[in-house]
């Protein structure tokens, strides 16, 4: 089968290769991949700036169709439309695994960089991370379940958000847009902030129902949007120091600041805000099972809008065009089709 593989550590060393079609183990499901999303992590693996376990097939955001079952698998059958979580290998015994936080497991290996991922014609994953999707959710949108689950976990698992709240989201990339949609689904007034070069992304967010989009959060805008009180919740999805400082300044007293975007190891931030304003500062990573169920329900029901996030689609053979477009910040979410656009029938 065709697969996009990182075959050696370091910069580059990514290419389309022919490899063996996976055979599902006793507790695994074989899935024919319909659509796979390009993530910033994939770009970093391409450039050798983040960890991977080569030789390994890239891709951890995807949708597809069940085409094979291990002998112990129940509740699924060939033809089921599915997505899956990412933690393929976990110990299953530690406190994190037992409490549903498998992404915290010290032995975790995730698809796409720890073990073989979804930028291939087929992927085999353990049944415990597979979720069925309804016919009302098309494969392209379903491929966004993983980043949406990350957004839902980051925002809703760390707050008690209500329609009375004001939410600030820094960064209009895919995760920032999905955090804004998650806030919108709760009825909260949502402000999405980017840079001048993000205007097209911000315009798309407005068309998808986000209340306010800005290329700069000024003191005047703060006064108008919050009456000078500040935002109840601020979420940084950029990992950029200026955005983090601005978001912490914009949170109200006793408000919540959530760090979702990955940062460099050391930052210079004003910690006097933490004490003087009694801020709740939360770090967040990954997702849990219930976040996936909510993501599927919200997208399938049309309660959140994600069509505007898919900006380009390519066959797997054109992966480099997609990767270059993604790293150039020209797209929001770019999909690859390992089996062609119509090639997902069992």
Automatic annotation (TrEMBL):
SUPFAM superfamilies: GroES-like, NAD(P)-binding Rossmann-fold domains
Superkingdom to which the source organism belongs: Bacteria
One Gene Ontology MF term: zinc ion binding
Keyword Oxidoreductase attributed: yes
UniProt entry keywords in alphabetical sequence: Metal-binding, Oxidoreductase, Zinc
Cofactor (UniProt): Zn(2+)
Keyword Manganese carried by entry: no
Boundaries of every Enoyl reductase (ER) domain copy: 10-336
A Pfam family recorded for this sequence: ADH_N
Family: Belongs to the zinc-containing alcohol dehydrogenase family.
Protein's name in the database: Zinc-binding dehydrogenase
């Amino acid at each position: 089968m065709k697969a996009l593989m990182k075959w050696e550590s370091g910069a580059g060393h990514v290419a389309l290769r022919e490899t063996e079609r996976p055979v599902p183990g006793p507790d695994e499901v074989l899935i024919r991949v319909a659509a796979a999303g390009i993530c910033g992590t994939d770009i970093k693996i391409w450039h050798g700036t983040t960890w991977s376990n080569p030789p390994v097939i890239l891709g951890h955001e995807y949708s597809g169709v069940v085409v094979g079952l291990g002998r112990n698998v129940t509740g699924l059958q060939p033809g089921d439309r599915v997505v899956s979580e990412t933690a393929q290998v976990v110990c299953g015994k530690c406190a994190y695994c037992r409490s549903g936080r498998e992404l915290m497991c010290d032995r975790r290996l995730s698809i796409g960089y720890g073990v073989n991922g979804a930028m291939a014609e087929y992927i085999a994953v353990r049944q415990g991370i597979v979720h069925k999707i309804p016919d009302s959710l098309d494969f392209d949108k379903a491929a966004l379940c993983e980043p949406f689950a990350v957004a839902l976990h980051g925002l809703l698992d760390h707050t008690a958000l209500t329609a009375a709240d004001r939410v600030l989201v820094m960064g209009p990339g895919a995760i920032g847009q999905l955090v804004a949609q998650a806030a919108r689904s709760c009825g909260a007034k949502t402000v999405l902030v980017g840079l001048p070069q993000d205007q097209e992304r911000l315009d798309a967010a407005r068309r998808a129902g986000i209340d306010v989009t800005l290329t700069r959060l000024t003191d005047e805008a703060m006064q108008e949007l919050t009456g000078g009180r500040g935002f109840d919740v601020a979420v940084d999805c950029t990992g950029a120091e200026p955005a983090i400082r601005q978001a912490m300044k914009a949170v109200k007293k006793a408000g919540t600041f959530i760090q979702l975007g990955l940062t460099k190891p050391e930052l210079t931030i004003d910690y006097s805000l933490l004490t003087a304003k009694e801020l709740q500062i939360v770090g967040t990573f990954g997702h849990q099972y219930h976040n996936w169920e909510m993501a599927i329900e919200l997208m399938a029901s049309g309660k959140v809008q994600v069509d505007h996030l898919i900006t380009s689609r390519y066959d797997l053979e054109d992966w480099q065009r997609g990767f270059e477009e993604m790293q150039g910040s020209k797209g929001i979410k770019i999909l690859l089709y390992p089996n062609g656009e119509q090639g997902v029938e069992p």
